[in-house]
Amino acid sequence: MTSTAEQVDRLAAWEAREASLYRVMPYAGLLVGTLLAVFAPSPRGLPLPVTLAVAVAAGCWVTWFVMLHPRWISRRALMAVYYIGLVAAAAVLVLGSPWYGFFAWIGFVHAFLVLPGRWRFVGVAATGVLVGTAQGGGLPSSPGHWLLWSVLVFFNVGVAALVSWFGAVTERQNANRKRLVEELAGANRKLAETARENEGLHAQLLVQAREAGVLEERQRMAREIHDTLAQGLTGIITQLEAAEQSRDRSDMWRRHVDNALGLARESLTEARRSVRAVRPRQLETARLPDALAELGGRWSSLHGVRAEIATTGTPRSLHPEIEVTLLRAAQEALANVARHAAATRVGLTLSYMADVVTLDVRDDGIGFDPDVRPAPRQTDGGYGLTAMRQRVTGVGGELTVESEPGGGTAVSASVPALPGGAG
Q: pTM for the full model?
């Protein structure tokens, strides 16, 4: 952006210096012509006092239109009047003394400065005639002089026209270059403003991403705590309550205490794995169908409820997050059956299909009305189903719950069958 701005400034400075030079050049031509007219007068010219008076008038004419009113340069009618007066004064001076050809030459420059379009070439042609006349020593007076005058006039007009044409082309190129430079400078300014806006937006996005990451991690930890510590503690309490009721039977008491200790150790291990975001122990050493079979067998022995586990379709390796989601959904569903259903039989079915994998958990318990809020006695406040739904929808799946009072409950989790190699 700096280089473009410097180009614009240099171009503007050059145009300002050029305009200043064009304004003072007429005075230099008048001065040179006057000095030569005084010290080397022409024998066939006008009287010197008349020539000097015309020179002073020409200087005043240029001063009035160019020096005192520089803004008039954009007014075409006034500039046409100025140029006609300039050429007329130059013609009188050249007839008075050929030395004023130095002043008449200014007509070439001012034709481009004040005249529009093709009128410049008219002004250049008129000036070429005056300059040729000055170079020939005045108006021709003999046939040989007429020939010399014609050659000088045609030469000056031709060269001036050619130079004027190249000057017009160069002027258009300069105008286009100036416009392009200004457009580039404007584009660079817009890019700089956009960059500053992007920096602010990037900083805002970083803050939002950080907040979203914190929220996501909190939700993950909440789900993991519910799936490990909360369920483990619930199971421990259940086993200790059963042990309290079987104090008189040492074998039953010991079994419930051992179950409570086992649940405590397992919950502690799973809590540590959850903090480190490591896969559950069951999936580290076994495939998902085997892990569900182990889960159902352990749950059945703890709660004394028959659990039937079935797998349909061809089992295959799934993305780790998909397998964890289905395992946690099975744990939560079985935990809800143990706490609320009073069921005598539970069935788990894992179905492998082409694009999806579905886990169905059904029980023959007391059921509930899904449209009614959970009863106050449910200490988890219904968060178990909420966590299960968050897990399933988080991997692009869908969770449905069907139940009715006295008709048992069916929970179905359907997730995409992403292969184990997907990242």
A: 0.44
